[in-house]
């Protein structure tokens, strides 16, 4: 039998039962595949499972949450489309809608703009930024695109060799020295002409410590 958490682990989400954990934390994968011909609405309704009884019957509240989530990501007109027929950017919007329908205070995003072009990258980050504020959420994004992080994230953490080496506002922690050391490659930092945030430009010459 698993013992209950000690005093130092009462806020550790890993100790929560799966259903309770799914009511606190949603996850958006970088790739969204399904072997079944689900519609967009059916995909989003799957986010409601933590709030349903053991029979997983969709009720009026579930459909209302799904419709609201699709509206927030601009996909309300796609509810009856088959998920597999969508573009990569559209699939990612639906995945975000499913996470919103899950109604959690925290959403984790794993490389949310992988395999999308610059237009969708900007749109998806703008959407995450807007939704985070609109719903008063905590959004944690894992990304390799430091320029998108600089543009849209309030706080960033830089990882190097499995350790967090810096945390804070992009303007405060993104330095040429830190990023060149982290990536092992020389970079230059300039200011975005409109937003004023750091923008990172790589040099051709490798960085040597």
- Major beta sheet, strand line-up: 1-2-3
Low-confidence runs (pLDDT<50, min 5 residues)? none
Total number of beta strands? 7
- CATH C-level label of the largest domain: Alpha Beta
Which secondary-structure class do the elements indicate? Answer: alpha/beta
Compute the CA-based radius of gyration: 20 Å
Order of helices and strands: HEHHHEHEHEEHHEE
Helical fraction: 25-40%
So what's the oligomer here? single chain
Summed over residues and divided by their number, the pLDDT gives a mean of 88
Total DSSP helices: 8
CATH architecture of the largest domain: 3-Layer(aba) Sandwich
| Content of β-strand | 15-25%
Distance between the first and last residues' Cα: 52 Å
CATH third-level topology of the largest domain: Rossmann fold
Q: Brief description of this entry?
A:
This protein is α/β, with parallel strands linked by helices and 209 residues long. Helix content is 35%, strand content 20%.
Write up this protein:
The protein is of the alpha/beta class and 209 residues long. It has two domains: 17-143, 3-Layer(aba) Sandwich (Rossmann fold), CATH 3.40.50.300; 152-209, no CATH class. It contains eight helices and seven strands. The protein has helices spanning 18-22, 40-45, 60-72, 88-101, 118-134, 146-152, 170-173, 176-183; strands at 25-28, 106-110, 138-142, 156-160, 163-168, 185-191, 198-206. The termini are far apart.
